[in-house]
Amino acid sequence: MATTAITTDTKWWGGGKSPFNVEYGKLMMWYFLMSDAFTFGAFLIAYGTIRFSSTGWPDPNEVFQSFPGLGSGLPLMFVSLMTFILIISSVTMVLAVRAGHERNKAAVVKYLFWTIIGGIAFLSCQAWEWHHLHEEGAWWGRNPFVNQDGTASSTNFTNFFFTITGFHGFHVFSGVVINIIMLIMAMTDTFERRGHYLMIEKAGLYWHFVDLVWVFVFTCFYLI
């Protein structure tokens, strides 16, 4: 009986499988994403608590109305572009994962490249938005925007905005770095030698998580 138990355990770990019959690295990625979701959730719950307990709050249509090269008066147009870019990058990541399942190295390289371009484009847009808001006087501890009723607004708005969007931006940056590493590994035939592209799928889980979190950030800051 003891010998059988040892053999079974060895098969679980030696074969790279978790007790849940999921590839071990993928299971660990899910655990990490769950813990990260709690962190984002705590940030957003704190934001919601302060937001809806306040008597006034800035109008996002007034705060986020600028578009590079086109000036102001275009509410939420720029952030809509940012969201579109991130969604498209999620699509190319799906295609990269599918190509990995098919052991199609050329397609993996192509779609990973476009996913990286999408991530860099999103970060560039966010950098412009931060710079523009900073030029208007917004930063941690500084809020130049008034509430919708015309009264003075607290710094809670800018403090939460720069903290949460910055935390998300850091995740996007990390995802871009991870995808660059995956691209290099694919181009140097690392996955071909291993006989599988499981790492691409794990990177894809992280990238889709980052995209999903942006939906909540977009809703909380730009729409409500």
Structure write-up:
This protein has 224 residues and is mostly helical. The protein has one domain (31-223): Four Helix Bundle (Hemerythrin (Met), subunit A) (Up-down Bundle), CATH 1.20.120.80. It contains 8 helices and no strands. The longest helix has 32 residues, at 156-187.
What portion of residues belong to β-strands?
Answer: under 5%
Span of the ends, CA to CA = 61 Å
The main β sheet shows up as: none
Q: Could you say how many structural domains there are in total?
A: 1
What is the CA-based Rg, rounded? 22 Å
Structural class: mainly alpha
User: Could you name the CATH class?
Assistant: Mainly Alpha
Helix count, DSSP H or I runs of 4 or more residues: 8
Helix content: over 70%
Low-confidence runs (pLDDT<50, min 5 residues)? 1-16
Q: What is the number of beta strands? A: 0
CATH superfamily: Cytochrome c oxidase, subunit III, four-helix bundle
| Mean pLDDT over all positions | 90
List its traits.
224 residues, mainly alpha, Four Helix Bundle (Hemerythrin (Met), subunit A), 8 helices, 74% helix, 0% strand, disordered N terminus
List strands and helices in order, with pairings:
Layout: H1 2-14, H2 24-53, H3 60-63, H4 77-101, H5 105-135, H6 156-187, H7 190-194, H8 198-223
Short description:
By secondary structure, this protein is mostly helical. The protein has 8 helices and no strands.
